[in-house]
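Quick start: read one record
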Amino acid sequence: MSERVIRPRRSFIFSPGLRPDMYPKALKSGTDIVCVELEDGIAPKDKDEARQKGLALFAKPQADDGVERIVRINCLREAFGLADVQAVLATGTPPPALMLPKVRTPEEVIWLDDLLTERGHDTRLHIIIETNPALEAAYEIAQCSPRIDALFFGGVDMAAELRCVNTWENMLYARSRVVHAAAAAGIDAIDVPWLDLEDMDGLKRAAEQARDLGFSGKGSIHPKQIPVINAVFTPSEEAVARARRIVDAFAEADTGLVVIDGKLIEKPVLRDMHRIIAVAERAS
């Protein structure tokens, strides 16, 4: 199985499995992740067709264009989700990664990991935290499989579960738990899409809030949102230069702490500095 690698996950956009003609357009949108949609965006009557068309997109080798490919399957506790898993196991050309919605327990993820391992698929996993049980178990979920590359925060469903209005302040506790769980596991945390297409200033503010809280990226519902999101989550030249100085200083000092610009910096900071450099290099 492939190891986790640091890569930009600043932005993602959905492409409906029912419309394979939209997939190439999504790949050229500038996003870091394209997620082929088999779940909420597909009506029950169209699930079978979307599954067939969506998975068929991966029958041929994918271009090495830096865009991460994911398929969002249906909930593993539902018949549609089981059918999705069976189809993935049956194919010899599985998607590079699967996004799992409405997860409730680590056991669901482990179950799928075991099936993929038995089949010999290297498919990675991305987990949406959007249920109360998942929020409670977020730390354990993030650590339960080496296949997991990111936790996605499903703010709309989470707000409904919490019976609250979906505002930044009301959802701060839930977002913080997702960031904490992802950081502890050394994986990415990706925030919910901004739903107001006309409010680009609001999108920028929301993306900056998510970035400052510790998220790696944010979803989009339209290609015109992607440049704003990418700009917010791309490390600045100043941040990259500082990260390089810190990495170089530790390499020369061979100690657990260094002083940069009069500030004491301890070695645990190094992992984040390497991450900033890696994301900046891959995003350039």
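Residues 131 and 254 are 45 Å apart (CA to CA).
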